[in-house]
């Protein structure tokens, strides 16, 4: 007789344990930094279900996250880390909903959570993993003038976990020519990422900065257009020479205008050097780098 039941159980494994089976996520759940996270847990209810005999306990390891019995929340033994951040959906409990809402997620909330449910129909507990992730901010581009080129620095912060970075120059990978620095905020644990490249020769080309935060599928891709106006200047001087054969007064006028421009540019260049050579570039703005006769736009 007993053997027969065992055989049936092996054959119809599911049906032998459906009597009281709770449901939690099979895969790790991802929570977002500072947001709320619902930890799902469902239990079977039938017509004999009774709130007063229902016990729901959420734990992370040995820490009590939240518990409920005698028809109400029982938070005496709740771990300090979770105080005022947890709640059950009491309206939904009659439908077998034992899910926990966790507010203001931080990186310290990651771990293995266990949902235990006990009713007059039976009891069971199941566990699943929770990991936390945070989106990286819109990257900021800074450039500074070096003696022999420009330094481009891209910074993005407030993300988790550490991302993978890639730099492209006209579709070829130049990540090896860049340097990257990851810094973790001691308080929040979130990352600040800085990545920079020194360009000695600025030509008309496009640079692409790619930041990939895998667990979130976050892909930041920003293009930086580099312009060199060398050939434009050559064109300008050719035009001036053409003019000199036509009318001498025009040349004189041009010379005056050029002297004024020269004084203006030299003055601007001096002012620019005063800014420690570092300037932040906004999006789609274009900036002329006086020393290098080139401009950059993001
Ligand atoms: C439990 O109820 C809440 C609130 O209505 C809902 O957001 C959640 O999805 C429910 N949980 C499950 C596992 O259905
Ligand atoms: C970057 O350098 C490493 C070793 O320093 C090399 O194995 C790799 O192939 C290089 N990658 C590219 C894209 O040049
Ligand atoms: C870029 O230039 C700065 C200043 O000269 C230097 O400190 C830094 O190491 C250089 N970085 C790279 C990636 O070559
Ligand atoms: C770079 O592009 C600018 C604007 O499109 C153009 O005026 C200039 O001649 C180009 N420079 C070179 C070196 O090709």
Automatic annotation (TrEMBL):
Note the superkingdom of the native organism. Answer: Eukaryota
PROSITE patterns, A to Z: IG_LIKE
Task: Enumerate the subcellular locations listed in this protein's record, separating them with semicolons.
Answer: Cell membrane
Matches recorded under InterPro entries: BTN3A2-like_Ig-C, Ig-like_dom, Ig-like_dom_sf, Ig-like_fold, Ig_sub, Ig_V-set, T-cell_Activation_Regulation
* Positions of transmembrane segments: 245-265
Location (main, coarse): membrane
Q: Which residues are in the Ig-like domain?
A: 35-131
Which is a GO BP term held by this UniProt record? negative regulation of T cell proliferation
Keyword line: Cell membrane, Disulfide bond, Glycoprotein, Immunoglobulin domain, Membrane, Receptor, Signal, Transmembrane, Transmembrane helix
Record membrane topology: Single-pass type I membrane protein
| CC terms in the record's Gene Ontology section | external side of plasma membrane
Its recorded name reads Programmed cell death 1 ligand 1-like
Organism source for this protein?
A: Sinocyclocheilus rhinocerous
